[in-house]
């Protein structure tokens, strides 16, 4: 009989039991996260919009259920700093009016709210003045959902579809229950602001205080129908995206998705014959490109990141029953943060430390590549930018798949 434990993989009990006694964690099923399939009305198609609300920018894709290609959803005007296929995660209040995305970026007056997603992370207390994070984020997501609806009306025909939104929360599979609940409440309030009967589409320059008060009221009693809004951990989405690459060879894959505010890490085994990806360990850490931007001690920051990369590998290695195939590791990078030469360089260089405790270092295989999500329709306008910035879409891409299509098993 094999004994199993069900301890927090980051906790001391788990480490003690696995290291000292060699016990194994119980396989952890993927968190259902309130997954309910919405019954489809006759004559309608089912659309899934994946919204990756990032610390820096928001990425949106929509997929007709069952189709191989997801469509780039462009809801904003291109401008210099941001890739043209993303929407800045910005809110501005100026002259009693509220602005979102690129309009918020371009206006000079008033107060700009940025890095809002970071204000949601567990243990963060926000100190700035102005509306609460939940209210500003729900307002922003309401604008995003409304614009996405308009895009879908135009692309697929008004009333021709049922639209489900899947959003990612910055957490691991066994993530923070409180954060998930809070995020779902915010998303449901945003949904209600857009889809409650008679709601107007939210544009730029709405009267700020009346609009935010309305959002605040919805946060007190959110009532999105079950299944219309779904949430999944941000570590899972890139693995789901990865699973769609039919050319993937069997073996061990470490995914590093470094955004502006957080980095998501996971270590997985691809078994193509069984159409399975087994995730042995995943975590979301509060260390992103922002911490590297003005880093006083760049080497210290790099070491912080590499410590977590090594930990991800080690936890995965120790949880896996078969060690033989772990002499080969493919690292896949996603997110804007890995474009930083120092970060990428460290990941490319440090394989001896990462692949501990594999003894025969000379027999190991190690490669580092960028993960390009397979099957995104650039929708005309986004062709060049998608070619250049496709790696930013790992999360949004994974978010557009139906849950029953995920070939993922958790240990
Ligand atoms: N070529 C690039 N394209 C886009 N962003 C880049 C690029 N190079 C570096 N960056 C930096 O990457 C960050 C944005 O990355 P990304 O869009 O993945 O973050 P995010 O998804 O908004 O954040 P998070 O996932 O942490 O919430 C910014 O800090 C940006 O300056
Ligand atoms: Mg991101």
Describe the structure using short key phrases.
binds adenosine-5'-triphosphate, 411 residues, alpha/beta, Nucleotidyltransferase, domain 5, 6-stranded mixed beta sheet, 32% helix
Mean pLDDT, rounded to whole units? Answer: 88
Sheet of most strands: 7 strands, mixed
Low-confidence stretches are: 1-10, 32-36
Range of strand content: 15-25%
Assembly form of the protein: single chain
Number of helices: 12
Indicate how many domains the architecture comprises: 2
Morphology? globular
Which ions, cofactors or small ligands are bound in this entry?
A: adenosine-5'-triphosphate, magnesium ion
CATH structural architecture of the largest domain:
2-Layer Sandwich
Q: Termini separation (Å)?
A: 18 Å
Estimated structural class:
alpha/beta
**What is the C-level CATH assignment of the largest domain?**
Alpha Beta
CATH topology of the largest domain: Nucleotidyltransferase, domain 5
Using only C-alpha atoms, the radius of gyration works out to: 21 Å
Share of helix, binned: 25-40%
- Strand tally: 19
Explain how this protein is built.
It is a single chain. 32% of the residues lie in helices and 24% in strands. The longest helix is centred in the middle third of the chain and has 24 residues, at 133-156. The protein starts with a strand and ends with a strand. By secondary structure, the chain is α/β, with parallel strands linked by helices. A hairpin with a 2-residue loop joins strand 7 and strand 8. It folds into two domains: 45-233, Nucleotidyltransferase, domain 5 (2-Layer Sandwich), CATH 3.30.420; 245-372, 2-Layer Sandwich (Nucleotidyltransferase, domain 5). 43% of the residues are buried. The strands form four sheets. Strands 3, 4, 5, 6, 10, 12 and 18 form a seven-stranded mixed beta sheet that branches. Residues 1-10 and 32-36 have low confidence and may be disordered. The radius of gyration is 21 Å and the shape is globular. Bound molecules: adenosine-5'-triphosphate (ATP) and magnesium ion. Magnesium ion binds at residues 52, 54, 259, 335, 395.
């Amino acid at each position: 009989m094999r004994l199993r434990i069900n301890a927090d993989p980051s906790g001391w009990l788990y480490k003690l039991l696995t290291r000292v006694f060699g016990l194994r964690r119980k396989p952890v099923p993927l968190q259902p996260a309130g997954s309910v399939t919405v019954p489809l009305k006759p004559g309608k198609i089912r659309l899934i919009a994946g919204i990756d609300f990032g610390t820096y920018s928001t990425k949106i894709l929509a997929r007709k259920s069952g189709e191989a290609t997801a469509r780039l959803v462009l809801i904003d005007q291109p401008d210099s700093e941001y890739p043209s296929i993303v929407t800045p995660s910005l809110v501005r209040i100026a002259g009693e009016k509220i602005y979102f995305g690129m309009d918020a970026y371009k206006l000079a007056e008033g107060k700009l709210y940025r890095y809002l997603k970071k204000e949601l992370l567990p243990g963060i207390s926000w100190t700035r003045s102005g509306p609460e994070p939940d209210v500003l984020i729900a307002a922003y997501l309401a604008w995003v959902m409304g614009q996405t609806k308009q895009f879908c009306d135009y692309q697929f025909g008004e009333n021709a579809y049922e639209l489900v939104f899947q959003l990612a929360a910055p957490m691991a599979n066994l993530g923070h229950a409180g954060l998930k609940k809070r995020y779902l409440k915010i998303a449901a309030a945003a949904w209600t602001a857009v889809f409650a009967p008679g709601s107007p589409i939210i544009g730029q320059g709405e009267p700020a205080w009346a609009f935010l008060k309305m959002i605040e009221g919805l946060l007190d009693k959110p009532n999105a129908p079950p299944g219309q809004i779904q949430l999944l951990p941000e570590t899972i989405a890139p693995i789901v995206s990865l699973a769609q690459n039919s050319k993937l060879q069997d073996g061990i894959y470490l995914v590093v998705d470094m955004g502006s505010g957080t980095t998501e890490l996971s270590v997985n085994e691809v078994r193509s014959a069984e159409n399975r990806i087994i995730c042995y360990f995943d975590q979301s850490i509060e260390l992103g490109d922002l911490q590297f931007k003005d880093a006083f001690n760049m080497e210290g920051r790099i070491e912080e990141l590499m410590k977590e990369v090594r930990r991800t590998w080690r936890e995965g290695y120790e949880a896996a029953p078969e060690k033989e195939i772990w002499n080969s590791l493919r690292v896949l990078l996603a997110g804007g943060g890995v474009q930083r030469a120092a970060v990428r360089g460290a990941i490319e260089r440090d394989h001896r430390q990462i692949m501990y405790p594999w003894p025969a270092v000379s027999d190991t295989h190690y490669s580092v590549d960028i993960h390009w999500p397979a099957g995104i329709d650039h929708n005309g306008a986004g062709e060049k930018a998608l070619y250049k910035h496709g790696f930013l879409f790992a999360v949004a891409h994974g978010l557009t798949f139906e849950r029953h299509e995920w070939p993922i098993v958790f240990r």
